[in-house]
Amino acid sequence: METMKGFVNMVSFIRSCTIVGVDTEIIRVECDLSRGMPLLNMVGLPDAAVRESRDRLRAAILNSGLNFPVNKRITINLSPAGTKKEGTHLDLPIALSLLAGAGEIGPEELEEYAVIGELSLDGRVEGVQQALPMCIGLKQKGVKKIILPKENLKNVSVVEDVDLYPVETLREAYRFIAGEETVIPVRGKRPATAFQSPDSEVDFSEVLGREEAKRAIEISVSGFHHLLFTGPPGCGKSMMAKRIPTVMPGMTYEEMLEVTKLYSLSGMEPEEGGLISRRPFRAPAGNVSAAAMVGGGAGVPKPGEITLAHLGTLFLDEMPEMRRDVLEALRQPLEDEKITISRSRSKITYPSKFMLVGARNPCPCGYLGDETHRCTCSMQQIRRYRERLSGPIMDRFDIFVDLSAIDYDSPEWAASMTAPCRSSADMRAKIEGARAIQEERYIKEEIRYNSQLQGRILKKYCRLEGAAKEVYDMGCRRLKVSLRGRDKLLKVARTIADLEGKEEIGAEHVAEALQYRRRDEEKDESQ
């Protein structure tokens, strides 16, 4: 081996990472210095941002007062070579690996750390995007010590059981690795306010009447069942849907990490740092494209609305007016709780466990069955309008609710003005009770909600006997419920029983679940 002022021709390495879909892959940054024409060559599928780091590295090392190896052929390898490397967060690990290869740092001193950070020309370590999902992934891969930009410390300090070493300059990182300077680690920990539900400006106590809709929402949220509202304009479909976040139970620490990670991958991290503590509520516009809904874009696909609604609610207003390809794109995630985006060289799977809430009018003009307005639609127009929601999409809803127009002169409306009105807090308390029952019941299963029941465990936990079985069989025959619909009926009945604190599913629970399977397509359309 050749030596040069303490330099030993050898291969050095340091760990970093890259994001592949929602997963983090460990990257081994290797550096080799050898005889040959002076050149810095980078291999291992680096993208343009990584290749451009060659110029930043030289300036940053020299401007930090460190020795840049001259008259050497430098080869930087980013392993595994088959994974594409993107982003500027590899600047700092490449620089430290190069300094180790030049003999400035002992290679054994790099082994226990993973490093991320972008370098400026004067040697400052700049913050990087997606630092939180990187640190979450590194922890899952067994890395316990991470050197990172001080600018990212606030965001990633919520990752517990990891020692974070914040640095501001390349020289500080170099001296720390070399044992010449101390960087006090920050121990990541979960926020103290992790399980608090934030206040909201809206509340269900402001909604007079509509107790049948509130009950349907209560059942839907308790078991994470998909819900479809049908009613004329102004009956309160959107108003009810937009208050659903106020009755959603709080997220666990693990759920908050998962949601915040997804938003970070989309460039939507909270500006104040920390974790997203409230379940998502996504309401894309009616003209949303299929790519915006499922995810996509040039290069590595980004999560779409379906993924951003993960563990929360996806609200689609005026569903029949949306593009057919957008609606049909919902079929896979509604069934599999994940969405797969395929490209010529890659396939990425994003999680998409969300509660779908849809709203539609009964006909194109919206006034079919309204006693105060005359419907101007023909039967053919009504049929075409309803056919915009295909049978497979309709069959994936668990609960159907028909809302009628409000008659402000009716005795019922006058009575609702003085009747007690349930608040969001009251509804949420009952929902959390049902959720607690489900968590205890499924503690040994790989599910958390009644809507996830299927196959063996569906039969195990949704057994019907006696009168309940008779009501179920008779109702399914009369309503001509599909096989998928029969399973959904059992799941909804299970949730209704949980809300009542009942272990056994009774006939009254099945009867209530049956009324939510009723659709306006099955009614007399002669109006």
CATH class (first level) name of the largest domain = Alpha Beta
Helix content: 25-40%
Q: Count structural domains.
A: 2
Give unreliable regions as ranges.
1-8, 194-198, 520-527
Question: What can be said about this structure in brief?
Answer:
The chain is an alpha/beta fold and 527 residues long. The chain contains 21 helices and 21 strands.
Entry keywords:
17% strand, 4-stranded mixed sheet, 5-stranded parallel sheet, disordered C terminus, 527 residues, 2 domains, single chain, Rossmann fold, disordered N terminus, alpha/beta, Ribosomal Protein S5, domain 2
Structural description of this entry:
35% of the residues lie in helices and 17% in strands. It folds into two domains: 3-187, Ribosomal Protein S5, domain 2 (2-Layer Sandwich), CATH 3.30.230; 204-522, P-loop containing nucleotide triphosphate hydrolases (Rossmann fold), CATH 3.40.50. Mean pLDDT is 87; it is low at 1-8, 194-198 and 520-527. It is elongated, with a radius of gyration of 29 Å. Helix 4 (131-140) crosses helix 9 (253-265), helix 19 packs parallel to helix 21 and helix 20 crosses helix 21. Strand 8 and strand 9 (125-126) form a beta hairpin. It is α/β, with parallel strands linked by helices and 527 residues long. It has a five-stranded parallel beta sheet with strand order 14-17-20-13-21. The chain has a four-stranded mixed beta sheet with strand order 3-4-6-5. A four-stranded mixed beta sheet has the order 7-10-11-12. It contains 21 helices and 21 strands.
